[in-house]
Structures are given as structure tokens and as C-alpha cells.
């Protein structure tokens, strides 16, 4: 399935801060066919460093980041469903972000780009969904930061989401999760080439961004997966540990495809996200939801541990909401939602089928 990233521009978007971005662009891809009643649409929302290319292969032969889950007969079966994925606001893969040109100056926004939130990302996605004439999504699904967007959709637009699938995610970051993101941000800003964000016409802060990505990759894996993959093996060519070589490779690879300022803005949006809006309990805010939930976590995920998913499950059950929860066994850590697809696909396939049948009765 060869796919092409498409683009739409909207006249403006008012952010939660009150600032208006005008105009605002969004990059997106679609898979499958929208039915006549427009009742089979599924929105896939990506994790922090993802983009709109979620499924199929692009013109250069690159597979989408969730291609093992999106396609005919897969978890998100494109022979039945119309699947949409867009690059988030603040990103660097076609949607408006710090690297975009500010029409007022003719230069990249850089650090003059306004503060954004998970809610702002969802507002832009809603504009995109509305442009298709879709009034109610069959489902919205995503892992990690994608799960935050799923939850925001269900609360902000309760009548527009029939079902929600937050995977390996949370309703708000813990102090530890904020701490890892802050270390990464400081690595970028400590790079002499960062130049207070004004690096677009010169050398980007590659060293800082690479270190930030290295920190991130450590949190995505588990102790067991790192032991199995690397152990204490040394490379014969240079004598460094395999795990050192792997992290350096991942860091340098990331520099070629991601913008450092987007890293700063998006991680901050994740940190300030709080579905409960500062309240101790999630129960009141989740009471607004009219959505069926399938919530998935993984045993070895220490970045977004299962207790955070269970907090959401507990709040939903206290309001007698329709929620199914499963903790899948995996040694892959946080990356499990991208790797452990067989059980996920079976769960999601059945969940979507039941949701579709219930929708047909409406």
C-alpha cells in the first residue's frame, strides 16, 4: 500500500493560551475508504516523535511507524475502516510548528512560536476531521503521547468519539516522567549551536538533540530487553559496548529527521497535560465521556507503568463507564506498543467490530 502525505491549511486556530495561529497547516495520511454514512472513520494519533506516516509505504519505500497494525486484515483493518493519521501541531513533518515560516516576519517562528498543549493538538485534529464531513469517529487510538490525545478527545468532544483506545499512556505525567523530559530539553539548550532556537539558517544543535534522543531511548526499553539485546557485549571494531553504539546510532539518526525546537515544545506540552485539570480525582472529568474504552498497558513498561492506566480505568468504572482493560505481558518496555502487535491486533479487531455493530443500532 503506497501512500502519499497530504496537506490542508485552515485560516486560523485559537490556542488555549488565547493566541491565534493564522494560517495553520496540517499534514495527514489516509488509508482505506470512507463509507457513505461516514461511520467507519478511525483517527490514529501518534506518539511524541511520530508523524502522519503511520501505515503503508511512502514513495521512498519507508514503512509507516505502525504499519504492522494498519492495513487489510490488520488490527486497524483498512478493508473495513477509513483510517486517518495527522502530524501534531508543533511538529516538524508538515504541520505548523517552530520550524514553520511566520507570515508576519517571513522567518521561521523558532522560539517565538506560541506555547502549545495537547488540547491544541486535538483542536487542530478536530478541524481536519470536520473537513471530511465526519461528525462521529468510530474510534480514536494511540500510544504514549497518542494516548493523551485519545483521552483529551474523549473528554473535549464526547459526542464525537464512539470508542477510544489509549495504549501505554497516562492522564498526567509523574515527576519522574517530567524529569526525563527536562534532562532532554536541557541537553538541547546546552548545545552551543542551539543559539536560543535561532539555528535554522546555520548548524542545528545536533549534539544536544542526539543526547536528548539517547535519554529517551533508554526509557523506551526495559532492563530485560536491553540485557537480551546488548548484555555487556563489546564491539570488535572499536571496543565500545554494544549498547553505547546503539544509543549513538539512534541519536545521530534522529538528528536527521527531527527539529530540536519541536522537541522542546512537544515534550513541554506532554508535561503540562493534566486531564483532571489540577484536581486530585479523574472521576469528574471522565464523567463527561460518552465513549467506550479499551485501555492497554504492558508489564515491563516503566516509563508509563500500568498503575497510570489503572487510575483511568478506576475513574471510569466509578462512573459505570464502558471500559475494558488488559495488561499485556511483554519484555520490550514502553516500545511494546509498537512491537508486540499480535495480541494488540486481536484485542483491537474485536473491540472495533463490536463498536461498529453497536453504532449500527443507533
SSE order, one letter for each helix or strand: EEEEEEEEEEHEHEHHHHHHEHEHH
Question: From the 3D coordinates, which CATH architecture of the largest domain would you assign?
Answer: 3-Layer(aba) Sandwich
The low-confidence runs, each spanning 5 or more residues with pLDDT under 50, are none
Q: If you average the pLDDT, what whole number results?
A: 96
Features:
Rna Polymerase Sigma Factor, Chain: A; globular; 11 helices; 37% helix; 14 strands; Rossmann fold; eight-stranded mixed sheet
Report on this model:
With 362 residues, the chain is of the alpha/beta class. It has 2 domains: 6-172 and 273-361, Alpha/Beta hydrolase fold, catalytic domain (Rossmann fold, 3-Layer(aba) Sandwich), CATH 3.40.50; 177-270, Rna Polymerase Sigma Factor, Chain: A. 37% of the residues lie in helices and 16% in strands. It is built from 11 helices and 14 strands. It has helices at 118-131, 145-156, 175-190, 206-220, 223-229, 242-255, 260-272, 283-286, 306-318, 336-339, 341-361, and strands at 6-10, 13-14, 20-21, 24-31, 41-44, 70-71, 76-77, 82-86, 101-102, 107-108, 139-143, 163-167, 292-298, 323-328. The strands form 4 sheets. The protein has an 8-stranded mixed sheet with strand order 1-4-8-5-11-12-13-14, with helices on both faces. Strands 2-3 form a two-stranded antiparallel ribbon. Helix 9 links the parallel strand 13 and strand 14 (323-328). Helix 3 runs antiparallel to helix 7 (260-272) and helix 4 (206-220) packs across helix 6. The longest helix has 21 residues, at 341-361. It is globular. It starts with 5 loop residues before the first strand and ends with a helix. The model has no long low-confidence stretch (mean pLDDT 96).
